[in-house]
Design a protein that fits this description.
Helix content: 25-40%
Low-confidence stretches: none
Radius of gyration: 22 Å
Strand order of the largest sheet: 5-4-6-7-1-8-12-11
Structural class: alpha+beta
Organism: Haloarcula onubensis
Number of helices: 15
Keywords: Acyltransferase, Isoprene biosynthesis, Transferase
InterPro entries: HMG-CoA_Synthase-like (IPR053544), HMG_CoA_synt_C_dom (IPR013746), HMG_CoA_synth_N (IPR013528), Thiolase-like (IPR016039)
Protein name: Hydroxymethylglutaryl-CoA synthase family protein
Number of strands: 15
Distance between the termini: 43 Å
Pfam families: HMG_CoA_synt_C, HMG_CoA_synt_N
Mean pLDDT: 96
Largest sheet: 8 strands, mixed
Strand content: 15-25%
Shape: globular
Order of helices and strands: EEHHEHEHEHEEEEEHHHHHHHEEHHEHEE
Length: about 450
């Protein structure tokens, strides 16, 4: 059976930077540690005036196609995942294709185009769609481009405001991939939840505490479901575990839950029992409340052990290196985590050939998916092509007053006008409004 997976990826981050400790915290009257230690965030990326979800997606896709030497005829599918769409009918993928057709001789009239929405998990669902399309033999030798693009804005003074971010991840899905092969096994956890939603509104309504609990519950279900088809899971089987990362502090919780869950009844639990005892079991307690309190105490003790901390430092922490500096990209966040982990592995000489990543995606509303990805020999050459570090360094650093203005520019309900803070070069840009109120775009050399 021919391998199918991610052949290459590209990243485009918003060109503006908001420093949370130096700029945002003082303006809010907050201790910087609330963000850098509590949330695990140092900065957020924002789109400039001439940027939006289409330009970021098209720029990432263009760079991907140029690097891989592709023409429109090589692409049979363009899937865009976003929860920042500005049109309830016309998909973002058609805008992206229209942008790309401005710089290529051919067109994408033959390509299937769609837009996926299920909060942050839609990027992974789009990846699944492309995988299934190729597996079914319907691709006619063509590859798919899957793009996760979002501007994750919150209302001003919302508790989630510090987690904002903007950017796009474009992935080429093909046979015989050069980066990772996707596993056919998947695990899901899904339920009708109201933890985070946008009922006919741009900015989300969030029940913060509930959102964390729903995230953890669905992840646990997806992990169990994955194990039911893939077999027993052991922490040492996976050198990297990229999680959906709304902010790194959330991943700290998810990683502790996941580790506790998969060491149950293993030699690791036996070895740790000498230090912190065995995991509590429900039948040993008179009430659910007592059991849950015991689980919390055990988990806290677990995260203080040297064994857990060494595992976290090697398996989880590297996947958070980009998120700390760009914020939440909604549909792109787990894909940023994958890129960060692989980039760290290459920079530190880790041999991942043939090893598996365990990828844990999540979307509010709510659904989690867990699947494995096998790292393909030669992956280092693909990861070496990423220039995300350069993009992050080049960002224009906003003052708080400029941040307020940029927030208004990208607020659909605000009437704000401003000049770009950066000079567009070799990129697609927003160019105004068309005759039916649609957004228009052009390419600037």
């Amino acid at each position: 059976m021919t391998a199918v997976g991610i052949d290459a990826m590209e990243i485009w981050t918003g060109k503006l930077k908001l420093d949370l400790a130096e700029t945002f915290a003082p303006a809010q009257g907050d201790d910087p540690g609330k963000y850098t230690k509590g949330l695990g965030l140092h900065a957020s990326s924002f789109p400039d005036v001439h940027e939006d979800i289409v330009t970021m997606a098209a720029n990432a896709a263009h760079r991907l196609m140029e690097r891989k030497g592709l023409e429109p005829a090589d692409i049979g599918r363009i899937d865009v995942a976003t929860e920042s769409s500005f049109d309830n009918s016309k998909p973002v993928s058609t805008y992206v294709a229209g942008c790309l057709e401005k710089v290529y001789d051919g067109d994408f009239h033959h390509a299937n185009k769609g837009e996926r929405k299920f909060a942050c998990i839609a990027g992974t669902q789009s990846l699944d769609d492309a995988y299934n399309w190729i597996r079914a033999g319907r691709n006619r030798g063509r590859a798919a481009i899957v793009i996760a693009t979002d501007t994750a804005l919150y209302a001003r003074d919302d508790p989630g405001e510090a987690t904002q971010g903007a950017g796009a991840v474009a992935m080429l899905v093909a046979e015989d991939p050069d980066l990772v092969e996707l596993s056919p096994e998947q695990g899901f956890g899904s339920a009708d939840e109201t933890d985070f939603l946008k009922p006919n509104q741009q900015f989300p309504s969030v029940d913060g505490k509930r959102s964390v609990n729903v995230y953890l519950a669905r992840m646990r279900e997806a992990l169990d479901d994955f194990a039911s088809v893939a077999g027993e899971i052991h922490p040492e089987d996976y050198p990297l575990i990229p999680f959906h990362t709304p902010f790194p502090g959330m991943v700290r919780k998810a990683a502790a839950l996941g580790y506790r869950h998969i060491i149950r009844d293993t030699e690791i639990e036996d070895e740790l029992a000498e230090e912190i005892g065995y995991q509590p079991v429900p039948e040993a307690f008179d009430s659910d409340d007592e059991f849950y309190e015991a689980i919390r105490e055990y988990t806290d003790a677990l995260t203080e052990t040297e064994r857990y901390q060494a595992w976290y430092a090697e398996t989880i922490d590297p996947t958070l290196e980009l998120s700390r500096h760009v914020g939440n990209w909604y549909t792109g966040s787990v894909h940023i985590a994958r890129a960060a982990g692989l980039k760290h592995a290459r920079e530190h000489g880790r041999d991942l050939d043939g090893r598996q990543l365990l990828v844990a995606s999540y979307g509010s509303g709510a659904q989690a998916e867990v699947h494995a990805e096998t790292v393909v020999p030669g992956w280092e050459d693909e990861i070496a092509q990423l220039n995300v570090d350069e993009q992050v360094r080049r960002r224009y650093e906003l003052s708080f007053e400029e941040y307020e203005q940029i927030h208004d520019v990208h607020n659909h309900d605000a009437e704000a006008d401003a000049d770009s803070l950066t000079e567009p070069s070799a990129e697609f840009v927003f160019d105004g409004w068309g005759r039916m109120g649609e957004r228009t775009y052009k390419y600037i050399d």
